[in-house]
Structures are given as C-alpha cells and as structure tokens.
Design goal:
The complex is a heterotetramer, with two copies of chain A (413 residues) and two copies of chain B (340 residues). With 413 residues, chain A is of the alpha/beta class. Helices cover 34% and strands 8% of the residues of chain A. The chains are: A alpha/beta (413), B alpha/beta (340). Bound molecules: thiamine diphosphate (2 copies) and magnesium ion (2 copies).
C-alpha cells in the first residue's frame, strides 16, 4: 500500500479514489503483484510467520490459466467443476433475482457479481459442520452447501413459504440446518458473535471451525475490533474474512483506512495469523480457507483473511454506481473475473470446453427459472400469500407475553 | 426576504445545509456516503462540490466514531452536522451520545460544550424491513442533555435543522423517510403524493428557522386532541377527516423538551386525547406524554388517554401494513375515546 | 430441600451462579474482572477456582464484544451469564442488545435463539458519581424481545437469576448495588443495615426460582398503591411507615413483561397510585406504568397518578442525596395524592 | 511478544499472567530489551519505517543512568530538574490524596504511582496550546501545565470551589484554560473525540497537535479502533497514547490481547506511525512525544505510542491488588522507578544531589499540605459547603428548559 499523499497545507486529508466517473480506472496503487509466488508456511506456524503475507497476495491461478505455487490445493477436475458450477449458479441466480426485483416481485436485492469465488471457495473448503456467519454478499455459501433454491427464493419473495416468515429483507438468509447463521442488516455484528460461537465449539471440543465474513467498509466498525480482540485473547477456532471489494456503497476502501495499510495487516496488531488472498482466484480462496481451518481445528487459533476482489455491480438495488465510480472500472479490474478464470483453467486442463460451459449455463438458467416458477406459486410480497398475519406477533419471546397477545387481539388477528 | 420554492423534504434539508454551510464557516457535514455521493437519500447532494472536502465529506462506517468525531470538532469550535445513514444504525454510537455528548456541558460545568446536530432518517412504510424502519426516538428522550426533534414536512425540516445548528445544545433530528418525497396519509394503496401540492412544501430558499421546543396545532378542533409527530401527523389528519371527527391535531415537532403548554391547553379544552406514534408501544414516547398529560389534565379528562403505536415486535418486512399504525386503528381509537 | 442461610445480595447472586454452574454444564460466566478476581463487587468470587477457566473467566474491556460473545455462545447451545461491570458501561453493547440479541429469535423465525443472562449493578446512593450510578432500565424496556428485571432483595436476586438462566429468553437483570450489602430505606444518615436481619436475607442454599413476570405485593394496604422496584421498594416501605399511610407497596421485580394484573387489581382497590423509580423522570419506566395504569384503571382513579423519580440531570456526585428520590419526596407525593 | 501457549486439548485459551499472589514475579516474557539502542527515523518518514519500533523499546536512560542513543532529546539540566519536580509533585500529591481519601475527606481517589514519567514527559514535550484528552491517570499533565494545586484539590473534595460544581468523581478533572479536556468515567471515549478535535485544529490551521491517553485494558474498546481508523483515514495531527501499565484493575494485559502482540503494533494495521517507549524513562517519553508532535505539526498525520510501564499501586481506592498479583511485582518491575531514574541521571550529571532531592521533597510536601489546608477551607464532600444545590439543575442544557425548572422547584431549591 502506498501512503496517502501528505501535505503541509492546513486541513485534514479526505482520501479520494484514484478515479471518479468520467476518469480512467486506475488500480496501480493496489500492489497486486500478480506474478510473484507467495510462500506458504505450515498452518501450525507462529502467527508472526504469516505477517509477510499480509502485504502480498496469495494467488494460485496465473495469467496463463495454470495453477502453481505452494498454495495450489491440487483439486481434482471434478472438484474444480463443482466450484465452477456453484459460481455460475450464484451468478445466474443473482441476475434473475435482480430482474425480478426490477419487476416488483421483491422489495430489494443484492448481487455478489465479481465475488463468486469467495463464497464458493470457502464454502467448499469448509466442512458442512463448520459454522458460517456471513454478510449479505456470500449467497454462494448456500449453493456450496446445497440449499434448495426454491427455499431461497421463497425467502426473497417474502411469501408464505419464506422460512423467515416474511420478517427479513430479501437476501438476509438464515438456514440453521445448513449451519448458516442469520444475516443481519447491521454491519459487522456477526463478527464477534462468530468468535463466541467458535468458543462454545472449542469448549465442547466438537472439532468444527467457525467462519465469518464482512466487507472492507465494515472493518471500520467497532465490532471488527471486538472480534479480533476476542479471537486473539481466547485463540478461538475462527476464520475472520474481510472481503475487500474496493467499495462500501459509494465509499472506496480508503474511507475505511485501506489506503494506508492492507486490511490483512490489521491482524498483525492482534497477533493473529494473517493471509491476503486473490479473491477472484477460486483456488487461492480455497487453499487459504483450508489452511486457516486446519490451523483452527488444530487448536492453534484464529486467522484473519483479506480477500481482494471487486464489487462488479451495484451495491444493491438502491444505488447507481455510475454516480460515484467509472463505468469501466469493473472491466479494468486487474484480477479478472473469477468465473472466467476458473473456466479457463479447466479448459487449459482439458477438463472443460465452451460447449459444456454453455450447456451448464443453460441448465442453470432453466433450473433458476423453474425454481422461480415454483417459488412464485407460494406467493410474492406484492400479491401474497404471505405468512399468516398473526405470525408477526410470534417469536418475539419463547412464549407470547400478555402485552403482545393483547396487541395481536387489537389488530383483530 | 428570500424566494419561496417548492421542495421535497430532501431538498429542504439540502437547502438548510447549504444555507448553514454558506453562512457559517464553522459548519461542516459528514456521514457514511454523505460526501461525494451526497448521501443514500441525497440530502447532502452537491454540497461537497460546492464547499470542498474539508466541509462536506465521507466518514468510515463506524457510528460511534462519527459521533465522537463530531463531539471533538464541536468542542473545538466547529458546528458539525453528522448524518447517521439510518436511525436503525445509530446504536453503535449510543454510548457516545448517552455518556459523552449529552453530559459534556454538565460534567465540565460549561467549560466544554458540543453544539452539534445528528440527523438520521427513521420510520417505516418503505418496505425497509426491521433494519431500515425503526423509530427509536424514545430511547433518546430518556437522555437528559440532548434535544430530540422530528419534523413532519419540508418547511419544518429546513427551519428546524437551521435552528438546531444554531442552537448551543446537541440536537438529534429524526427525519421520517416516508415523508422525504411526499406526504403520506397512511394508505399505501393510494398513488404517492408529492410535496408540491402541500402548503408546507413551499420553502423559503434562504435563511429562516423554526424554533425548537414549540409544537404546532396543525388542525384546530374541539372534540378530541391528537398528539403526534412525524409521519403520523398526516395519518392523523386524514383519519380525522375520514371519520368526520372534530379533532385538534398537534404536531409536537420537538420531543424533548416538549411543548406541554400547548398540549395541556388543548386537552383542557377537548377533555379527550389520543397519542400516536409509529414506534413500539411499551416505553415509547407516547408513554411519557400520557403520563404527563394525566398528571396535568387529570380533572379535565373525560376518558382514558389512548395510544396508537407500532407493535412490540421488530418491524416485520412482509407485514409492513399490519405493523404500521394506520387510519383504521386511529379511527377506532378516536371513536372509542369519544364514546368512552 | 436445601438449607437456608443468611446471605447478602452479593452472596445470593454468587450462590445462584454456583447452583447454575453445578447443575448445568452449558452455563458459563464471564465479564471484566469477573474471572480470577471474582468481580469488582465479588459476585463471581471463588467460581473460577471451583469450575475452571472454561466456565468462569475474564473478558476484555469491550462491552459490545462481551454481549456478542455471549450471543454466539448462547446460539451454540451454551447458557452464558455475562456481567457488565456497571450498568453505566452497558452502552457500548447497546447495539448488540437492540439489533441482535433481542431480535435473533424473531428474525430467524426461531431457528436461532440466544438464551443468555446479562447481569449488571445499577443505581446510586454509593457516591459513585454520574458514571457509576445510573439506572438505565427504561432504555431496555423499549426493546421488544428481552426480559428486563430488577430484584430488591437477596432471595429474589438468587431466585430470579436462576429463573433467568433457565428461561429460553434473553434476560437482563439490573442489580441495585445500593442493596448489595444491606437494605436501604432512603436515609443515608442512618447506620448501614445488614441483610441478616431481613426476612428476604434468608436464602435457600440450593436450587429454587422466583418466576419472572410476577410482581410481589410486599405490603398490603388500602389507601394508595405504590408501584416500584429495586432500591425504592425499601424507601417506599419506610416512607409509608413514617407517614403512617396505609399503602399497598408493589415490588414489580420484572419490568418487561410487567405484571399488570397485580397492579390493576391494587389500583382498582385503592384508587390512588404513585409510581417510584430512581432513574430520570422523562421517558423513565414510570411513564410506561402510568400510561398503562391510566388506560386500564381510569374509572377507578380518584387522583392523578404521580411519579417520584430521579431528576432529568446526570447523577451529580456531590448532590447525591438531593438527586436520590428519598423519603421526604415520597411522603409528599403520597400525601398530595391522598389529598387530591 | 511470545505467542501464548497453544494446545490440542479441547477448549479455548484464557490467558494467565505469569504470576499470581504467592508466586514469584516474572517479566521475562515482555521482551524489554533494555540495552540495545533503537533507531530513530526522521519524524517525516513513511509510517512503515517505524514498524520495527513497534516491537522494540525506545529508551534513553540506561542502567548506568546515562542518556544516550539517537532518541536522546538532549535536555538542559534545568529542564530535567523541572521534569523531576513535576513527577515528584505528582507522587507526593497522590500519596497525600490517598491518605485523605482514607480519612473520608473525599469519596474516591486514583494514583499514578510508577507512571509519573508518562504525564510529565509528554506534558513537557507538548506546547501549552496543544490539546490534551487524558484518562484518569495522567494528573501529572496538570502539574506540567502549572495548574493551581488548590483548584485540583477543591475538585477532588467536591467542595464549593470545585470547578466542576461537584458533578464529577474526584480525579475526573476538567481544565479548559489549560487546554485539558474533561476526563470521562467511561473508558476510551476520549480517544476518537481527540481525533475530531485534532481535525478541527487542522481545518483551522492552528498548528496545534492533540494528544490522548488510554490504558492497555481500554485498547479492547471499540473506541480505540474508531480513533485509529479516523486518525488513519483523515491523517489528523493527533498523538494516540496507550499506557500499558500491565494491569486493568485485576486483568493483566493479556486479557486485552497483549500477550500475542505489542499494543504498539496495533498501529501497523492502520498505517499509523508507531512507537513503543520505555514509559519509566522520562527522556524517552519526552523524545517520542516530541517526535510525534513534530510529525503531526508538519501535517504528516497521527502517531500511536505505547508507553510500557507498571501500575505500582492499586487501581483505585476501591481495590486491593494483593488479591490478584504478587505483592513483590512492582519492586521487580525491570524498568525501575521513573522518579529514581531521572534523579539518578541528574546526580550522575552532577546536576542534583540527595540533599537537594530531600529538600525538594520536603518543599513539595509542605506545598501539598498547605494547599490542602486551603482547599479544605472551601469545604469537603462530607462536611460541605458544596456548590449550591440549585446548581445541580444547571448546565444540562444551555438554558434551563421548563421541565428541569419544575424539577428544581419540586425539590424546593
Ligand atoms: C451499522 C450499519 N451502518 C450502516 C449500514 C448501511 N450500509 C449497508 S451496506 C453498507 C456498505 C458496506 O460496505 P462493505 O462493508 O465494504 O461491504 P460490501 O457491501 O462492499 O460487501 C452500508 C454503509 C448498515 N447496514 N449497518
Ligand atoms: C466503558 C467502561 N467499562 C468498564 C469500566 C470500568 N473500569 C474502570 S477502570 C477499568 C480498567 C482500565 O484499565 P486500563 O485501561 O489498563 O487503565 P489503567 O487503569 O491501568 O490506567 C475498568 C474496567 C469503565 N470505566 N468504562
Ligand atoms: Mg466493500
Ligand atoms: Mg492498565
């Protein structure tokens, strides 16, 4: 990271991204060192051995579409294809849901375009029993764990089959059977909760690790610090992921302090093992997650992982990114498209081809469409049916207390 | 005198900030996405370009740090106006508000003060789900040392924001986001209304202020007093009209310190009262109003004071309109109070 | 049946924790200085030694992290009991309580829950100044999804803590620290009293529980109802005695959900009511009680409900006893209510 | 720092100090490298040049009582004697106040025994116009700035002349004329406020820097992270001091994560300039503060300084440290006593002697006693007179609103 420009003029600094709308994208300051291979210490190493890794970038897939280096997880073609499948499914699902939101079928949506490798890679590297505390941009974890797409859509439609009874905004999934915690609308709150969950697992000795995800912007919240502090003090088996997709709605990563140090390097101050990973490289994400999981499972404590990526689309259905960054920025992102990269790797390996890719895309599109048809048959937010109205008075407490019962009666339901 | 223009509440807030930044170099404005982008609702749009990055800028996503930074700046002679992106997200900053902001003048015996403004959009009716719909004003009314206000229209929004920035006390302004682009009478099935047809959508372009601590009787009446604020002012007016009830409707505007004189006079006249807010019922601000009204107007009251409020649950996304205290519930409460 | 022992409130809380840790391996207890040292008030003393560091341990000074850690543990099958060193310091954790703890069951439709207990000493009367004297319970009564309680004696403190830990809801228990070592009737000039002479200082050593949501009529009477909780229960009893008033004194014990049935029955009988708490007046929990009582008991009321509370200022260190709502103020309020 | 012991046994780690009551003190794990000299980069350097300093210890005064090395601020004997004077005054003031508290003259007291160099060194290195946001353990700053001792005592006695009108606990000073902010009872809240203050100074271009102090335990609070984030993002002219006195009431620094990394190294993750200083070395504290102030005044942003010291006495009048740490620990502290060290240095220089020292001690004791007599004449908490009772209803707002006026009337004052 380069030090932000300093000056003798009076005034404090307000960091600026390298390019605003109308200007040429410029990622030269990010130090993405795409070629040099990065050492891989053993997962059982001292945390301090990982500190050089906080300022480099773990990559496996090179520009030649070949996997190499000490971090290569050496996955079978089958596993690689599974990863591609999950990412593609995420992407196609996201696009369809966005369209449906635009048609008024749901109130809100958030895509993870450009970041599909992060959820897919981690989701596959972890065991099903490992607990997940995601943010709203890791829907790929659900696909990695095989959640029923219709159920996911029913949630987003807030319909009668929504497993959250219409109580949450779309995309704010919960799936206890899949060891997937509840996504909060409040940024960062899940990070220290994940450490608490991991501590309970450690106390029980159940041999699971817990993983959580927040964004670059969210690192600024106090809860980020609370999580790192707890993770350091109690050496909990937890993986704390910072998804640095360069933007927090309209604020670039520098507004969270990302211009002066990498987010990975935050871990150094806590004595946490620390990795900085090419987030658009499915294999690198997979390998780093495996490393951290192995460390955690061995009772050696927590790892902070920064995955460097780019939010290729809008923050959500509520903003227009062309108002705050160049339209061309996504295309100029030096780490490429995670899906294309894995696809090209498989093709280079001779394990995939354009025709199979197109067929998969088509199959997934069909699956998504069919799922949507089925989900819609259970209702939409606008047309109903919704979960029964009296259900809105349930689950505030284990049992409905008198005052809430009265309120329900007041509403006449 | 300055011109009058038709403005939405967003435009009126933007205009207030513009006027304040122009007139007083101590004023600065910041918040998450509130610099270059101009805020997720656009309230600070164009201001960074006009006043520069030292005056209008983006803040990191840490509401505690935003409040603390504002306190430090205000203590050091500035007049910061910080935006909290949604009222639902003010809680990481709650400690800085309760323990620091509200007590600085007191604990230093006036040696240090923090004259700043926190602005934050609140309330439901926009399908925001439980984390973009809260009306958390009651929490803040229990904190001695801060002024708490909520405007119900563009004219007041601008005038109160100017008054807040010019006040020597810390002021917390809740902006009902359901009213940002137009008045809302409680019926979600009607086409959206616009402020341009509303008299309070006529806003002077220049400097003026609406005093804090003063309620407004938005409709005189003799049968019953409705005490409310924010979005519910419009719902109350429409409900009274629909039911043909001769209601006196009070828009409280400032919650602390509240204008008890106006309330007591009205209840003294009507002898009946309904308190209305969107926030949950238990320990909502309505409770404070009812407690005080019954203390002061006990002998004038001909019926128990009723409250119409949000339910004691989180704001349920899909059941938005079963949660929102709408016309039907207001009419029923007024009718029951009249018949009691 | 277990033995009965004379205990202070601290010993009773310690005994509750001991019983819980012994009976249920899911229970753990932590907080700032609450491990090796046993807490700054000694409530967790001896427990780390007895149960080990995985069950009873020190936490970093970050109240948000403490609450969040407890949520994560509780969601993962444990029954954490976390101590917040002073209620004044709970606010950094307010967001985790409002936005997370209270809503987890609701927003997950019951898939995840966080059955945990937060214990925290509150209240003044110990010359703690504005940052060791707060009674912030009202804030928490406006949060749907958590149970809020405050015991007034050792017997209840133990029984309610056990009930809280065995409850499937998150429970926040405020412990009036003025009562930790003895009852306090509001007169700071009297020699300190000890629990050993008080019937509620007799505490079973084993397991029992005091149900949440149930008030106790600590003194029957016919002239007036005093609704209160915590330290003020003792002040109310003494004040009524001093003034020779036939007061019915209700110890609310649980604030949310509160026992309206007991209150309404009493006010229906006496027709007069004074609500008493130590916290500031505006939007204090007294407001909620008064609002509800006037709604339900309007026709029985012969005088306005009065409230006796702390003032709307921070707790001023040197003027502790001018702030504390003492006997004189209670007697005046009762007398005025009786004469109204 | 050494990595905390890790294990394969189920369970999370709960860090333990090296010694508990009855055990022998052991500071061997702290890496205090008392002899090796530490490089001094220019205050205008890149922040990253300071990172090696986060894991060493800046010392000027050696065990031979001689000042040496690149950090030697080369102070005049007069300045050194002034430093000694301030520290001694702090110590004598503290002891007297503690005694008086024990006699019931005031409700509460907190000493800074063992840490006197931190406030004295920084207080002297900063300009009077520089703003201070201290915690409750830097009373030496007031002496460095020449605050009237009687006024300080009147505050601690909560009497009629208390400049805070009896509204704050003793030791929670405010002194606006001395550019000394209000000490909060709530830990850490002043840290991000200090950054805000510094930003306003920078915006105005008043050429001041702002300094703030928190303890090791307090670094765990979210506000520590908020302050570091703001300081990094806006490059404010602020000095963020962490006073690592090894204990937070009964919790050792490891409960704040201090066992796995130095507190100074927290700064690395934010890209802040970072120094770790022997807090019992008046000259080192002075030099480090000057360095950071120069950096801030030049518009080059913030510095995080960890001062390593030892809380030699109880946390406050409310605790008994022998319940949680060995009685001998203070005496075993490897960095010595800050007052003795500066005294010995002056003696070595031939600029001081035992007789002058004793005379100074005596003079200060007399000054403290005389001041106390005078302060007591304005009242004590127990006996009065206090500030007038109606004053307790003032200053909640700029003007007293109706409801507070009524409450005052209700009280009949
Ligand atoms: C406590 C809190 N503050 C503010 C917000 C509003 N908000 C929602 S998303 C967002 C940006 C988050 O950016 P980042 O952490 O980088 O995650 P990304 O969206 O890029 O995945 C903001 C400010 C919120 N949801 N919660
Ligand atoms: C927000 C908050 N939480 C808890 C406390 C109680 N408390 C007062 S001092 C203290 C220990 C602080 O230790 P440290 O930061 O190391 O400072 P030191 O006392 O050693 O100077 C604690 C826990 C408090 N004052 N504020
Ligand atoms: Mg982001
Ligand atoms: Mg300390």
């Amino acid at each position: 990271m380069t030090q932000a420009p300093s000056s003798n003029a009076p005034g404090f600094i307000v960091p600026e991204p390298t390019a605003r709308p109308g200007e040429a994208p410029d990622f030269s300051g990010l130090n993405l060192n795409p070629t040099s291979p990065v050492e891989r210490p053993e997962p059982g190493c001292e945390a301090s051995q990982t500190y050089p890794l906080a300022n480099t970038l773990i990559r496996v897939l090179g520009d030649d579409n070949v996997a190499s280096g000490p971090w290569d997880p050496k996955l079978s073609p089958k596993t690689l294809r599974e990863g591609l499948h999950i990412m593609l499914k995420t992407q196609i699902y996201d696009s369809r849901m966005l369209k449906l939101q635009r048609q008024g079928k749901m109130s809100f949506y958030m895509k993870s375009r450009g970041e599909e490798a992060i959820a897919a890679g981690a989701g596959m590297a972890l065991e099903f029993e490992d607990m997940l505390f995601p943010s709203y941009r890791q829907q790929g974890l659900l696909f990695a764990r095989g959640r029923d797409m219709v159920d996911m859509m029913c949630h987003c439609l807030s319909n009668a089959k929504d497993n959250l009874k219409g109580r949450q905004l779309p995309v704010h999934y919960t799936w206890a059977e899949g060891n997937f915690f509840s996504i909060s609308g409040n940024l960062g709150t899940q990070f220290p909760q994940a450490v608490g969950w991991a501590m309970a697992s450690a106390a029980r000795g159940d041999n699971t690790v817990t993983a959580s995800w927040i964004g670059d912007g969210t690192t600024a919240e106090g809860d980020f610090h609370g999580a790192c502090t707890l993770a350091s003090v109690y050496q909990a088996p937890v993986i704390l992921n910072v998804v640095n997709n360069q933007w927090a709605i309209s604020s670039f990563a520098g507004i969270a302090g990302g211009q002066n140090a990498t987010f990975a390097s935050r871990g150094i101050g806590y004595g946490l093992a620390t990795l900085r990973v090419d987030g658009n490289d499915f294999l690198a994400v997979y390998a780093a997650t495996k490393w951290a999981a192995e460390r955690g499972r061995a009772g050696l404590g927590a790892t902070l992982i920064e995955t460097v990526t780019y939010r290729a689309d809008a923050h959500s259905t509520s903003d227009d990114p062309s108002r705050y960054r160049p339209r061309e920025e996504a295309a100029a992102w030096p780490l490429g498209d995670p899906i294309e990269r894995l696809k090209d790797h498989l093709i280079t390996l001779g394990e995939w081809d354009e025709a199979r890719h197109e067929a998969l895309q088509e199959a997934l599109s069909k699956e998504v469409l069919a799922s949507y048809k089925k989900a819609e048959s259970f209702g939409t937010l606008r047309e109903g049916p919704l979960s029964p109205t009296p259900s809105m008075f349930e689950d505030v407490y284990a049992e409905q207390p008198w005052h809430i019962r009265r309120q329900r009666q007041d509403l006449g339901v | 005198m300055s011109d009058i223009k038709k403005m939405t509440m967003i435009q009126a807030i933007n205009s207030a900030l513009d006027v304040l930044l122009e007139r007083d170099e101590r004023v600065c404005s910041f918040g998450e996405d509130a610099g270059y982008f101009g805020g997720v609702f656009g309230c600070t749009q164009g201001l960074q370009e006009k006043y520069g990055k030292q005056r209008v800028f983006d803040a990191p996503i840490n509401e505690a740090a935003i409040v603390a930074m504002a306190i430090g700046m205000a203590a050091n002679g500035m007049r910061p106006i910080a935006e909290i992106q949604f009222a639902d997200y003010i809680f990481p900053g709650f400690d800085q508000i309760v323990s620091e902001l509200s007590r600085l003048r007191y604990r230093t015996a006036g040696q240090f003060t923090a004259p700043l403004v926190l602005r934050t959009p609140c309330g439901g009716g926009i399908y925001g789900g439980q984390t973009h719909s809260m009306s958390p004003e009651a929490f803040f009314t229990h904190i001695p040392g801060i002024v708490v206000a909520m405007p119900s229209n563009p004219y007041d929004a601008k005038g109160m924001l100017i008054a807040a920035s010019e006040s020597d006390d810390p002021v917390l302004i809740f902006e009902p986001k359901r009213l940002y682009n137009g008045p809302f009478d409680g019926d979600p099935h009607k086409p959206a209304l616009s402020w341009s047809a509303h008299p309070k959508g006529e806003v002077p372009t220049g400097h003026y202020s609406v005093p804090l601590g003063k309620a407004e009787i938005v409709q005189e009446g003799n049968a019953i007093t409705i005490v409310t604020y924010g979005t519910m002012v419009h719902v109350a007016l429409e409900s009274a009209k629909m039911a043909g009830i001769d209601a006196e409707v009070i828009d409280l505007r400032t919650l602390v310190p509240y204008d008890m004189e106006t309330i007591a006079k009205s209840v003294g006249k009507t002898g009946r009262c309904v308190v209305v807010h969107e926030a949950p019922r238990t320990s909502g601000f309505g409770a404070e109003l009812m407690a005080q009204i019954q203390e002061e107007c006990f002998y004038a009251l001909e019926a128990p004071i009723k409250r119409v409020t949000g339910w004691d649950t989180p704001y349920p996304h899909a059941h938005e309109w079963a949660y929102f205290p709408g016309q039907e519930r207001l009419i029923r409460a007024m009718t029951e109070t009249l018949e009691a």
